[in-house]
Amino acid sequence: MSAGPLHVPAPAGWRYRPLLAWTALLLGGLFLASLAAPFIYAALLELLPGARWPFSRIFNRTAMVTAALLLFVLRRPLGWSALPALLAGRSAGRRLGQVVAGLGAALVGVAIATGAACALGQLGPAASPYDFLAGRTANAFIGALAVGLIEETFFRGVMLVSLASALGFPVAAIASSGAYSLVHLLVSDPTLGRQGYSLGAGFAYLGHAVGRQVEPASLLPLFGIFLCGLVLAVVVRRSGALWLAIGLHAGWAFAFQVLRHATRPLAEIPGHSFLATHHYLVGTVWAWGGVILSGALALGWVSLVRLDRAASGEQGRVGDDRHRRSTPAG
Question: How far apart are CA 242 and CA 150, in angstroms?
């Protein structure tokens, strides 16, 4: 692969500065959110006493805002200058083509894996009526596209690139995929109350929400999400852009969301946490095979496109040579 955003050397300075900056952003964002969320929640209840927002939603939104602010403050050590190059493209049509190719690769890979799971007796059809599923398909697809765009921009477009410039691609892929996986421990839990308005209320909520996800059964979905991150990192490195990975990510999110309603596991789910139940599908061996197959299909598409462009370029050069030879010297 030619030089690109993932091959840019680290800026002058200490090599591990991006790693420290990302640690400060992730931990600092949670710390500030834990401090601010109880008071933001109390203020909202005073301004809008009829609102019924759960404290979990306010906490998660506060954490997103504080992380965004820290991302801006730490933009120099994080090195997010390569993001425009990853989002650029020769034309809107080609960018859309990459998203569609990623969606197609994800859906084909998951469909093959789902067929294998059904054949092996691990999945069966759900009893949900068609209108129940159809009513959720459009929302699931739109939400999947939004999630793919936001999470790929953050984790692969900014985090992966800045860490790769300092630590090299393999370490950066593992670190960014690990962070991407562990973030899923911060699942919004609307069953938890606001824990009062004290300085420690946000920290109490954070500890309780994360603690509810920590069980042996959560390790399998966490590994599945980590595997998705690794595949997406390789796809971004190989394609030199984010659009194929955005489509791949959106396709997985959409497929597993639909499968969660359209199928049912034929064996008991080993766990009770939100991760173990809501993300059960991505924690199965057959799903991991589907993720790897999807990534292989996406990489194959990249290779075919490059071969086609190389052949077109060679034909263009041959045509130019013939034209020059057939044109008399003036």
Answer: 11
pLDDT (0 to 100) of residue 205: 85
The structure's pTM equals 0.85
Task: Mention every residue, 6+ apart, whose C-beta is less than 8 A from residue 231.
Answer: 248, 291, 292, 294, 295
| Mean pLDDT, the chain, integer | 83
55-73 vs 17-47: helix crossing angle, rounded to 10:
140
Full DSSP string of 113-125: HHHHHHHTTSEEE
Averaged pLDDT for residues 136-164: 90
- Nearest CA to 227 out of 162, 156, 289 is that of 289
Domain map of the chain by residue range?
A: 5-326
Alpha helices by DSSP H, listed for the chain, are 17-47, 55-73, 75-78, 83-87, 92-119, 130-151, 161-167, 169-182, 201-211, 219-239, 243-262, 274-278, 285-326
Work out the burial of residue 85: count CB atoms within 10 Å of its CB; fewer than 13 is exposed, 13-18 middle, 19 or more buried: middle
Radius of gyration of the chain (CA): 23
Q: Three-state SS string across 39-69, please?
A: HHHHHHHHHCCCCCCCHHHHHHHHHHHHHHH
Q: What is the pLDDT of residue 12?
A: 46
Per the CB < 8 A criterion, the answer to whether 180 and 226 are in contact is yes
**What does residue 264 show for φ and ψ, rounded to 5 degrees?**
-140, 140
Contact (Cβ atoms closer than 8 angstroms) between residue 94 and residue 301: no
Q: What is the pLDDT of residues 214-272, one digit of tens each?
A: 889 899 999 999 999 999 999 999 998 999 999 999 999 999 998 988 888 988 888 88
Query: What confidence score (pLDDT) does residue 2 get?
Result: 41
- DSSP annotation of 177 reads H
Give CA angle at 182 (201, 270), nearest 5°.
95
Query: How high is the pLDDT of residue 291?
Result: 97
Q: What pLDDT, on a 0 to 100 scale, did the predictor assign at position 301?
A: 93
CA 315 to chain centroid: 39
Structure tokens at 125: 């059809």
Mean pLDDT value of segment 276-296: 94
